[in-house]
Amino acid sequence: MPLLDVKDLKVHFHTREGIVRAVDGVSFSLEKGGTLGIVGESGSGKSVTCYSLLGLIPMPPGRIEGGTAHFDGTDLLQLGESGLRKVRGKRISMIFQDPMTCLNPFLKIKDQLIEPLLLHTDTNKTDALKEAIKALGDVGIRDPEKTVHAYPHEFSGGMRQRVMIAMALITKPELLIADEPTTALDVTIQKQVLDLIKDRQKALGTAVIFITHDLAVVSEVCDHVNVMYAGRFVESAPTDVLFKSPAHAYTRALQASIPALQEKGKPLYTIPGAPPNLLALPKGCTFAPRAAVKDGHLDTQPPFAEIKPGHFAQNCPACLKISEPQMSKDLIL
Amino acid sequence: MDQTRYILSRLGQSLLALFCIITITFFIARLAPGGPFNDDKAVPAHIQAKMEAYYGLDKPLPVQYIKYIGNLLTGDFGSSFGNKGFTVAEVIAQGAPISLAIGLGGLLFALAIGIPLGTLAASRKNTKTDYFSMSFAMLGICIPTFVVGPLLAIFFGLRLGWFNAWGWFQPTDWILPSLTLGIYYGAYIARLTRGGMLEILGQDYIRTARAKGVSQFNILFGHAFRGGIIPVVNFLGPALAGLISGSFVVETIFGLDGLGQHFITAATNRDYPLILGTVFFYAVLIITVNFLVDLLQVWLNPRLRAARA
Amino acid sequence: MPDPISANQVAIESGTSLGKDAWLRLKKNKFAVLGLFFFIFVTLLCFITPLIPGLLADPDSTDLPNRGLPPGEGGFLMGSDSLGRDLFSRIIYGGRVSLGVGFLATLVSLTIGTVYGSVSAYVGGRTDSIMMRIVDILYALPFMIIVIILTTFFGNELWLLFLAIGAVEWLTMSRIVRGQVLSLKKQEFVEAARSLGLSHANIIFRHILPNTVGPVIVYTTLTVPAVMLLESVLSFLGLGVQPPAASWGSLIKEGADHMRTSPWLLAFPSLFFSLSIFSLNAVGDGLRDALDVRASKD
To answer: pTM for the full model?
Structure first.
């Protein structure tokens, strides 16, 4: 039995302008200790997917319209606020994008670090403080006996993200959801933080979901990747398969826009256009307006099908057409 | 070390402000047409001159000013013209306790009404509870104290007979005047609290707390409150100034013999020493409170603490 | 949640201009729209009806036999006061004073605050911090005291009243304008204007101030009721307009004195006053939300 099994999750936001279908029928599963990546541009619904599992989207306007999300046998979507509270921070933890704003500036590091322990375990304050100091040491913060008494503003961004990681893992959760954990950090720090998450994952046996727009991050840490576009998965495959033979046009475009993989001296490739307006999605294939191949897109929602064993993609013939020569010519503008 | 320097420089600023207030008041009062002894009582000219000489009002203004400041430095506020036989210090000592009692009571009511109401509204944003609380707060702001006061006096004083509608006789007589002030400032504080709390509740670190499994109650009071009430703390200085002017009105409504009444009488009667004395008293009060508020702000906000240390 | 918001932004960006968008948002706020219409109605009522001859009774003509009549009796729409004067007519004329003081004093505070705030922000540096420190100090002063001293000593001149109130109420405005100018100063079109060799005054008045209009409108809307409240307090204390002239504040005072025998004398002026303040605050709040304006302290 997988640790987390999400089936046909639908999350919509009912705004004044209309219904925003932020997540529209998404399924994935994750084994104990496994690492899953969810990749997409901002606005693709990847964060909402994970936040909704823990009931962290604002409701209203958000509403979970359907689906199940079984975590170790119980459906998270049916748990309700008080049931979810026992899961949050105890069995499933999160770290977020911007460490500068995610720690409470009014509270000392120690108070924020020991809070999950005090909430979810029988640990008393003295022992919790000892664990907090150890956790800070584990994430590579020097002099933890002293720094634990500091306020967040006394830390750099990278240090704060380490504190966030220590805080998320202090209860030894079974699942860690990392929402763009390196995006706001300096490039030199990014690698350190990724290594730290991998390292802690190995030590604690935690499963991790990486939400990111950066395929490079995924290639480095994930076993399996889901590519998300306009509220739906367009491709899902083991990491090496996805990188070696990307099937969907969007995945290929994303790959083409990794700067390190592009030819030197040429202008960097970017995907033309912007993500579609979720209030008024195109009827059929949602990627059609931005695809290099213009003809032959489906007018109805393309099915998410297994195109090769273990390799799923949104089955729109035009998007799946491998057209390497045109791609490099059209895409590298 | 730097902390001490900060406090000292604030103290210096305060003294400077105090000096300016006294000087401005002195010259506004004295340069205005008219005087204490030439009103409608038609005092013969030679008696008027004698009285002015007695109080030193015949000397050139700068001389009077220097003499007044000199006396002030020795703690001598002079004698009241209007309250014969009383020194200014005595008049203030009689009126100030009443004004302070209703002012402090008003502040307590305001905080006790405003902070819970604002927090409740913020935690139930865009629900009926929110709209109801904020409509109530809006009413509190729009109905002036001089309408609320008489209504409270009629209802609780005359209809129900719980309190005196007038005067300062019983130990409970501060309640209605304070409530009158408290409703107005409580409404204001409710709006400030709601705004401050909403600002904080929208921050990323509140999401972090929720992701940790913290309950709504603990998010409100453990994580958001300290930051959320900063606007209220910032408002305490201006609120005090407002409570003082509010006390003028409330003392009139409830017939209280407080400092506000003394001040207005002094102003209408050109009772220079009493005017200056009350202004001095108010200014010291306000400057002290503002200084304390400053310290409170620094204590509440670790980033400010770091910046000032 | 970043995702739905970005979807909204797409919708907004592709659609309307900022001003139009603000108006659309304001229109959705029923309180604000209602407030706006009510306030316009009251203003027109107070300033137009006295111009039509024969419509209103003389607010100052006494009619002792008909004193203290309840509303509707003896031809008095809202009753008569203790001297037999027509309350409705007195409310209309009193409204002219209250609203007039509100508008004029706001204009004074607007002028002082805008000039002070923009100069402080534009010059910047030490001057800025000293100027703002002064505002901080002034903020905490009991200005009511100064206003009382001014009005009692220099007579109850109406122009002095609004000058004094206006001089008190400019502080918030100066902070708003300063915050706005500070953020504008850093933008490129100001840099461009400077590189073209325009004078400082020219840059401030032609290029920066027009861009502060939104927040200034919001706080002007909120200053008018604050000023009207101050005036009413003074009138209530007998330090504002002098009898037989009236303002809503002095009418409320008279009403409070007779509230047990003639409650309508308190009820009607209070209603006019409170509803006007309420509607202005609703409009101001609505505008603030629609234009997304905030007072910045630093």
So the answer is: 0.79
